[in-house]
Each structure stands twice: as structure tokens, then as C-alpha cells.
């Protein structure tokens, strides 16, 4: 039995907002939640036509969310266009080539599609807890080495607190920029104000004492900046370079095949690949991964609308509200997620992403059982 449209909207609106937020933080695809929910829960699961409607709804949502997020991150200079084109253009070609075999694949994986990918999403969420914990330990070690006392600041004083706050906000405060931080502190306060320290009152600005020699911090092998291409070119054709790019090609190929055959957005796959293999920061990895997802989903949307899937093409006149409505609410969630992603520190974002992915994964896991119970 097909749910009425108002019931469809009531269910899909909050779920679409949640999906949009998850997309903004890690490039999450709507496929794992939308397909079983729309096909089985709202479409009744009896007509296979609803499987194709559900797939197109997921594809269109990923395209709209991805397009919006790419624009937002591009304005913030958080999209690596060269790497996005390098892996994205072949990905689109592979996906378009695979779409002609999608009917066979969908029939073969029909039972798996009903279950979604909840367990895999939960595992990815747990990995971000581990990642966040590792970054927290590094930040804690950096805070313990914050050179407040070495720079002539009283422990517990406002100046020392300022340095610790700066370390927390920036994620890490190295000894090299401590003097600059002290200068920022002096510049930000009136010259005649008193600072209350833990053992008395200090008048006037903080004057650094002779700094204690500090250890030279090693430069990272790959820099997460606009100069990334330059660094990669310098180390090209090394063993590490070959391994990284081989894995990137493998992930791109597999993700593109899944997009073409099953309609998966695969945004999270690309984000994780850029994060761990290309050594991008989280925002740059998300922006670039979502750029590729947007290209893939645009290709799939175009193919579906041009007749690659007759079940969608022949019924588009009455079907369009069913994919436009969740896409609009997903767009709201994407803007909300991007707003917070650009304001939270990378450390906080690891735990936010973990919370979202575990929550979304649990929904995807229990969703088929709830639907089955309701149908029963």
C-alpha cells in the first residue's frame, strides 16, 4: 500500500534534514536511508517501480545537496578543483557506462538494497571517534608545552590563559609562534591595565623574557594548503606516491561502479580517500569529495531523465513532487551542516561527524525491522 503524499512529506522532511547535515559534514549519501524508506516503507515494497523512484529520489537529493555544498565550500576555498577533476571526470565516465547494466544489478542486489548500509556507516562513525581521540591527545600534549611560562607569563594569569585559549582555538600552538601570540595579547589590551596573576599584579603590557630555546618542529611531508600540488609533484613516483594514487584509482573505480549500477552517491568514500590518502584537511576533503559526488549524481540524474530508467522517465509527470520535496528539506539540512562545519574546530568536527554517522547508521539498521513490523 502506497502512503499518501502528506504522510510521505511528514516522514521525509525530518529525515531529509538529517541527511543534509550529514552530507555537509562528511559527504554522506542519501542512498542508505532513502531507498529502503521510500521503496519499502512508503511505496509498499510490492511494486518494483517504487524501487526506481526511491533510487532517483536519493540520486536527486545527493545532486542538490552536493551542488549547494560545493558552492559553499568553493567560496571558502575548500575545494581542490584539480584533484576533483583528476578523479571526478573518469568517475563520471565509468558511472555512465555502468548505468546500462543497472537493471540487472538492481535485481541481483534487491534484498541487500532493502537492508541499507547501516553497519558500515556505524563503523565509519567509530573511526572518527578514534581519529578525534588521537587529535585530542596531540592537542593536550601541545597545551602542556604551551610556552606561557617560558615567555615570561605567570602561570594562571590572563596572558597565560590567552595562550592556552589560542592553542585550543587553533588546534595546536607551537613554540615558534609563541612570541607572536604574546604580541597579539599586548596589542589586544590597554597598555595601563593591570593583569592579575596568581602571585600578584603585573602593570602594563607583558614583556617576554629571554625565551627558552625550543625544539624545531618537523615539517609535515604533505602540506594541507593550496601548495599541495607542488609538494606532491616533488615526491612523485616514490613508493608512497604510487601506493596512494593506486588506492585512489581503486576507490574511484569501485565508487563509480556503485554509482552507476546502484545509484549510490559514494561521497563519503571520496571524502575519506582525500582525507587519509591525499592528506587533505577535513573541510578540503569534504568539499572535494562532494564535488565528485555532485558530478556523479548530475550524470545519473541526466541519464534517468533522458530515459535510461523508463520507470522514472514514463512517470515523471506525477513523480516529481516525491523527489523535489525531500530535496528541499535536504537543502536546508545541508546549509545548517555547512554553517556549523565552517565554525567548529577540526577536533570538534571529528566527534560531531561520529555522532551523526552512528545516529544515521543506527536509523538505517533498525529501519528495515520497523518497516517489516509495520507491514506485518
Describe this protein's structure.
- With 376 residues, the protein is mainly alpha-helical.
- The chain contains 16 helices and two strands.
- The protein has a two-stranded antiparallel ribbon with strand order 1-2.
- Strand 1 and strand 2 form a beta hairpin.
- Helix 12 (267-276) runs antiparallel to helix 13.
- The longest helix has 30 residues, at 346-375.
- Residues 148-156, 193-204 and 220-234 have low confidence and may be disordered.
- What is the radius of gyration computed over CA atoms, rounded to a whole number of angstroms? 25 Å
Say what oligomer this is: single chain
Morphology: globular
Mean pLDDT: 79
Q: What's the count of strands?
A: 2
Helix content: over 70%
Ends: how far apart?
A: 12 Å
> How large is the count of helical segments?
16
Structural class of the secondary elements? mainly alpha
Which percent range describes the beta-strand content?
A: under 5%
Strand/helix succession: HHHHHHHHHEEHHHHHHH
Which regions contain 5 or more consecutive residues with pLDDT less than 50?
A: 148-156, 193-204, 220-234
Main beta-sheet annotation = 2 strands, antiparallel
Q: What's the structural blueprint in terms of helices and strands?
A:
Blueprint: H1 5-26, H2 31-42, H3 49-75, H4 81-98, H5 102-108, H6 110-115, H7 118-144, H8 158-170, H9 178-187, E1 194-196, E2 201-203, H10 228-234, H11 239-262, H12 267-276, H13 282-308, H14 310-313, H15 316-341, H16 346-375
Antiparallel strand pairs: 1-2
Helix pairs in contact: 1-2, 1-3, 1-13, 1-15, 1-16, 2-3, 2-16, 3-13, 3-15, 4-11, 4-13, 7-16, 8-9, 11-12, 12-13
